[in-house]
Write a structure and sequence with these properties.
Blueprint (H helix, E strand, L loop, with lengths): L5 H11 L3 H24 L3 H21 L5 H23 L2 H27 L6
Helix pairs in contact: 2-3, 2-5, 3-4, 4-5
Length: 130
């Protein structure tokens, strides 16, 4: 059996001890990291690495889509946004189009930042949007 590095142990402990809100934040952060890795690989014309990073980003978006509560309009809108982002990533992957990638990165950052702010407000007892 191969021993885990201290970093791998730290990562595993961070995930195992995270709240659901923190797990979603971790997913958004990893999504943005994957998109940045894709961008860097595209710039270097490293097609296999670009493909691997962008497909991992798509897996994260698919997971996020599967967790959205679509009983409410905001959930329906978020689900639609994830679907749009996923379709754009398919297109970016096929065309190796950095402009599409930047578009999706912008949406991902905005959603992540909104999520972080909403979690802060909920934890502080301030009504979201208030």
């Amino acid at each position: 059996m191969i021993a885990k590095s201290p970093y791998q142990n730290y990562q595993q402990n961070a995930v195992m001890s995270a709240s659901p809100e923190e797990l979603i934040t971790m997913l958004y952060n990893r999504l943005l990291k994957d998109l940045k890795l894709t961008q860097e690989a595209m710039q270097k014309k490293n097609i296999p690495n670009a493909h691997n990073a962008i497909t991992h980003a798509q897996e994260i978006i698919s997971h996020l889509m599967s967790t959205v509560n679509t009983d409410y309009e905001v959930g329906q809108n978020l689900h639609s946004m994830y679907d749009y982002m996923n379709r754009r990533l398919v297109e970016a992957n096929l065309k190796k189009d950095a402009d599409i990638l930047l578009e999706v990165m912008g949406y991902a950052e905005e959603i992540r930042n909104t999520w972080i702010e909403a979690v802060k407000q909920l934890k502080s007892g301030v009504p979201v949007g208030g």
